[in-house]
Design brief:
Elements: H1 10-15, H2 19-30, E1 44-46, E2 57-59, H3 67-78, E3 97-104, H4 109-122, E4 124-130, H5 139-145, E5 154-157, H6 160-169, E6 173-177, E7 184-185, E8 195-199, H7 208-213, E9 216-219, H8 231-259
Parallel strand pairs: 3-4, 3-8, 4-5, 6-8, 6-9, 7-9
Antiparallel strand pairs: 1-2
Helix pairs in contact: 4-5, 4-8
The chain binds S-adenosylmethionine.
S-adenosylmethionine (SAM) binds near residues 179, 219, 222 and 234.
């Protein structure tokens, strides 16, 4: 099993300053430091309390600093890290999206890197790279992952069937993301979490043996002249739809608990 960061365990990685923390810290220092109480058009920005020591307020200034510094602050104001905005509060109860992803025989390392980037953003559990799918370290993976390959937990497996069996035994629903005839529409699908979704080769798709092992087949609607999307694009569509569904489920559960 590969471990992001060359042998570091998840706990080590969790202890390190997150990219979010570094970005928040950068914003604070450019703004003159949260403690100085400067005020700007954004008002108070709150870092999401993922990391206790960055959960304080930051005050961004557009006031009395030199023009160059003001422009830099304004540029940062337009690119505030998502988790430093009030929009992020809807995800505060979600530590991880209980979804693992298998990439089986994905031949392009750029597509693999792109999956790492999306996997990090959507907060999935594990990215499993099976068959011929390339693995870090790789210059091409790093080019599209842009560092996300260091943050996402991943495993390399030669035999996807074996991991499918293990995940099913642990209570995971297994879903093939494929353009098969028996597939349900992504937006109608009611997944059961925890979930394992499998994506296939750029041209051949998923093989029949693996398709047969899956509980569900899921298809992304295609309204144009093409039958399929690029596999990494399909990954983005599916993982964000799953995040949307899981967030709604969490909200409904929260509301039900409030009523008890
Ligand atoms: C480019 S597709 C492979 C060709 C595809 N089997 C076809 O019928 O054209 C590569 C992978 O992307 C995913 N994919 C792309 N578009 C999809 C869609 N509309 N629905 C479901 N999966 C899709 C699947 O995981 C598929 O194995």
């Amino acid at each position: 099993m590969g471990r992001p960061g060359g042998g570091r365990c998840a706990a080590d990685i969790a202890r390190e300053p997150s990219p979010e923390k570094k970005r928040c810290a950068g914003l604070t220092s450019l703004a003159g430091g949260g403690a100085k109480g400067l005020h700007g058009s954004l008002g108070d920005i709150h870092c999401a309390p993922v990391d206790p020591d960055v959960s304080g307020k930051m005050h961004v200034s557009t006031g009395s600093e030199p023009p160059g510094r003001r422009d830099a602050v304004r540029r940062l104001e337009e690119r505030v890290p998502y988790r430093a905005t009030s929009l992020a509060s809807a995800y505060q109860g979600i530590d991880r999206l209980p979804v693992s992803v298998i990439l089986d025989n994905v031949r392009s390392l750029y597509n693999v890197g792109s999956f790492f980037r999306t996997a990090d953003a959507a907060g999935i559990e594990t990215l499993i790279l099976s068959g011929i799918t390339g693995r870090p370290p790789s210059r091409q993976i790093a080019k599209t992952a842009l560092g996300a390959e260091e943050a996402v937990r991943w495993e390399g497996r030669d035999q996807p069937a074996q991991i499918v069996g293990q995940m099913r035994a642990r209570g995971y629903e297994i879903a093939a993301i494929e353009t098969s005839l028996r597939a349900v529409d992504l937006f109608d699908w009611q997944p059961h979490f925890p979930l394992c979704v499998i994506f296939g080769h750029e041209v051949e798709g998923l093989g029949p043996e693996l398709l047969d092992l899956c509980d569900t087949h899921v298809r992304i609607p295609m309204l144009g002249i093409k039958h399929s999307l690029n596999v990494a694009t399909a990954g983005g569509v599916v993982l964000y739809e799953l995040l949307r569904k899981y967030r709604r489920l969490s909200e409904e559960r929260g509301a039900a608990e409030c009523q008890v």
